[in-house]
Amino acid sequence: MSAFLKTEIHLAALALHSVKDANGSYIWKHSDDTIFGRPVISTPYMPNIGTGAKPIAFGDLSYYWIMERRPLSVKVLRERYAIEGLVGFAAHEHLDRKLIRPEAVKTLTIA
Which 8-state DSSP code applies to residue 103? Predict the structure, then answer.
């Protein structure tokens, strides 16, 4: 499914909210957070608006794969919390990611 990804920074939202189509209608539909019928997803992992930045992406995110490189490991931390009568846990997992079809996602570069 295609979607828009954008930075959570308010400046990016303001820029998108002010864009109109050829009929003079705003392209961002506030009622359901869509642009041209596609969902808009805000994320803190997209860069802020600035020269050379890519704060907005659009495409089929099913081609962005996240893979497990090493299985989840969990350590029990009994000694650290023994005085409080509690048991702690520390978990670690090594993941990797890749855009399998680069043509499936396009970014907007700020000049």
Answer: G
Element (H, E) at 76: strand 64-77
Q: Across the 111 residues of the chain, what is the mean pLDDT of every consecutive 10-residue run? A: 78 73 87 88 84 88 92 92 92 94 90 77
How far apart, in whole angstroms, are the C-alpha atoms of residue 6 and residue 57?
Answer: 7
| Distance between CA atoms of residues 61 and 72, nearest Å | 24
pTM score of the predicted model: 0.64
Specify the amino acid at residue 76: V
Please report where in the chains the tokens 């506030």 appear, as a residue: 30
Count other Cβ atoms within 10 Å, centred on residue 7. Answer: 21
Query: Rg for the chain (alpha carbons), in Å?
Result: 20
